[in-house]
Structures are given as C-alpha cells and as structure tokens.
Amino acid sequence: QMADPFLYDTGERSHYGCLGHEVQIEYLKAYVCRPSFSTDKAVIVVHDVFGWRFSDIRYIVDLIAGHGYITICPDFFKGTKPWTSTDHWADFPDWMKNHDPTKVDKEADVVLKYLKEQCGAQKIGVVGFSWGGMAVHHLMLKNPQLTAGVSLYGIIRDSEERYRLLNPTFFIFGEKDHTISLDQIFLLEDKLKQYCKVPYKIKVYPGQVHGFAQLKPEDMKPDDKPYIEEARRDMIDWIKMFV
C-alpha cells in the first residue's frame, strides 16, 4: 500500500461558491477572477493534480484577485481527466507520464497572450501548487515573460539545469511533506546560491504536510492555521514585491 502522496483528504471539503467565471481561450478552458478595479497586473495560478475545477484552487484564485490582480487558472490538463481521490496510487506514475508538469509551455503562452491582448496585462506572475509548483519551477527557468513565480511544494528534481532562474522565484515547503525531503530543499538552496542570478527565497513552514497552503478556512486545523495564513501572506507579498 503506497502512502497517499498528498496527505490531505479531498473528500471532506466544504462547498465553495466561486467569485469568478469560466472562459474559453483558444483550446483551453480557464477560470478567471478579476479585482473590483482595473489593473494591468495579472497572476496565472497552476492547479495541482486535482485540476482547474478543484474548489481549493478556485478559492486561491479568488484570494489573489482580492489583492488586486487579474487572476486566471487555466486547465493545464487540456480537458483530460484530473487525478481524483478515488484513483489508485499504484496508477499514479503512469498518470504522471501523461501529465508532465514540465510540458506546460504552449499553454502558458496561450494564457500570456490572452492576458496581454484581452486583459491589458503588462506584468504577469505565476503561482503553482504541488504539480503546479513543479510547472512554476519549470516556467521560471524558461519563460522570461513571467516577472515572478511562487512554487508551493513542487520542484523539478532530475535536471542539473534547474537553478538558473530567469526572474524572482519563491519556494514554499511544508516541513512534514513526505514527497519533498529536507535534503532536497537543502540541495536546492545550495545550488541556487551557486547558480541563481535573480532574487529567490526558500521557506519551510513548521509541521506542515503536502498541500497545506490551499486549504479553505473552514477546512483548516487550528494548529495549522497560523502557518497556512503566513504562507499565503508570504506568497502575496512576493507577488506584490515583483509583479
């Protein structure tokens, strides 16, 4: 029996009424939430394995929009089935082969074009969770149009070329995340010191497991709440500093 790599139960989620709406951009569906005033700043949110319709991710999109950004979460799975909490973990490696978080460049370009041409965005950041955190790490190495990134508990592990970030990137981790060991975090820090030419930050939140930062308030355990809120504030502060 493989341990559930996410350690958070998606079954008992409270209902969430979204503030945004769905749009079609070329071949992609996306969820968009705009702030109450007009702005030329935008943030792309990259969902985790549970996909762009997962209520926790929509909650995060709405949260970021509330801070003054046109915020969009495209379906990076392009209409294919996301992972669900009833799927078997033994099948996960095969599922991942067909959902590679480093193959998101085309979708990112489609969304960047939409944000610039249809929404008037001039500065665009990217935030991603788990699967999406890996996608953010990849995009911050490849796409200079993204002015800042926040990768939450997702890093590319198997490439020596993963440290030359193009723009400021913040890596958020939970101390008790059994998908990313502290050794990997120390290695990342060590190599970024050597190779990275732009501002970066790495922060580990005490006692937190994989997936901790996107929980909705009513789903948080009291002991975790301060760390979840701190991680979100830190995420927003990074975006505000650079986007």
Automatic annotation (TrEMBL):
GO terms for molecular function: hydrolase activity. Its main location: cytoplasm. InterPro entries: AB_hydrolase_fold (IPR029058), CMBL (IPR042946), Dienelactn_hydro (IPR002925). It is found in: Cytoplasm, Cytosol. Coiled coil: none annotated. One of its GO terms (cellular component) is cytosol. Residues 29-241 form the Dienelactone hydrolase domain. It comes from the Eukaryota. Belongs to the dienelactone hydrolase family. PANTHER family: CARBOXYMETHYLENEBUTENOLIDASE HOMOLOG (PTHR46812:SF2). This is Carboxymethylenebutenolidase homolog. The gene is Cmbl_0.
